């Protein structure tokens, strides 16, 4: 009888220990605060300094954007880091320390797999980011189709690969005209552009390059192809 009691006690302790551990893992890997799908676009701030300058000039709420993908360990976010280029992090790492109103998630419904039994199906956006863009350098020239990527260019080109245009990119002249810090940062970023290398003065370089248009998070979010899924 005594042995039975201690066996039951040990089993109870073991169960509660497992339960607490499982609860911790659930909290760690919980699917954020929404029913995530591969290809979801997640927006947040405070990742890259240049993104913050663009956000300020754009009068936008969000600076940086990533693409969700499936993995055996849980959802991951593919995004552009200003030093590492196109990289990724676990979703729980990407939102670590953020409250639910410190980020937002949008879904491109036209390309969403949307079948619960096909969670590992990446969809075209995540597939493009993994197979065509992963490891690519930062696009300092801010040009589409050159094998490198800046912030919102990654999901913009990923969507284009699926035949979807997420809005109309904005000329950098529009953004730089309201923020001198951004103009200075753009000239620094573009200084090794072939035209800037041979230009006699920075202003000569700017006169040509100011017509470059860029995708921004607000451009993506304003597209008719997306809807907000978190927070709602």
TrEMBL record:
Residues 1-22 form the signal peptide. InterPro entries: Papain-like_cys_pep_sf. Keywords: Signal. The keyword Signal applies. This is Peptidoglycan peptidase. It comes from Paracoccus alkanivorans.
């Amino acid at each position: 009888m005594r042995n039975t009691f201690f066996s039951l006690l040990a089993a109870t302790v073991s169960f509660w220990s497992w339960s607490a551990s499982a609860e911790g893992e659930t909290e760690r890997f919980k699917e954020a605060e929404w029913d995530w799908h591969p290809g979801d676009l997640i927006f947040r701030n405070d990742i890259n300094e240049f993104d913050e300058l663009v956000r300020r000039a754009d009068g936008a709420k969000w600076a940086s954007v990533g693409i969700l993908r499936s993995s055996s360990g849980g959802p991951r976010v593919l995004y552009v880091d200003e030093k590492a280029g196109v990289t990724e992090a676990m979703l729980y790492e990407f939102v670590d320390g953020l409250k639910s109103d410190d980020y937002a998630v949008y879904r491109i419904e036209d390309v969403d797999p949307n079948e619960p039994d096909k969670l590992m199906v990446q969809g075209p956006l995540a597939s493009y980011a993994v197979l065509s863009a992963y490891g690519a350098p930062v696009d300092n020239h801010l040009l589409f189709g050159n094998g490198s990527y800046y912030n919102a260019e990654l999901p913009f080109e990923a969507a284009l690969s699926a035949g979807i245009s997420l809005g109309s990119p904005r000329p950098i002249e529009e953004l730089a005209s309201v923020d001198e810090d951004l103009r200075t940062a753009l000239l620094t970023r573009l200084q090794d552009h072939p035209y800037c290398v041979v230009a006699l003065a920075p202003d000569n370089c700017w006169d040509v390059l100011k017509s470059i248009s860029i995708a921004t998070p607000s451009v993506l979010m304003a597209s008719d192809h997306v809807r907000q899924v978190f927070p709602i």
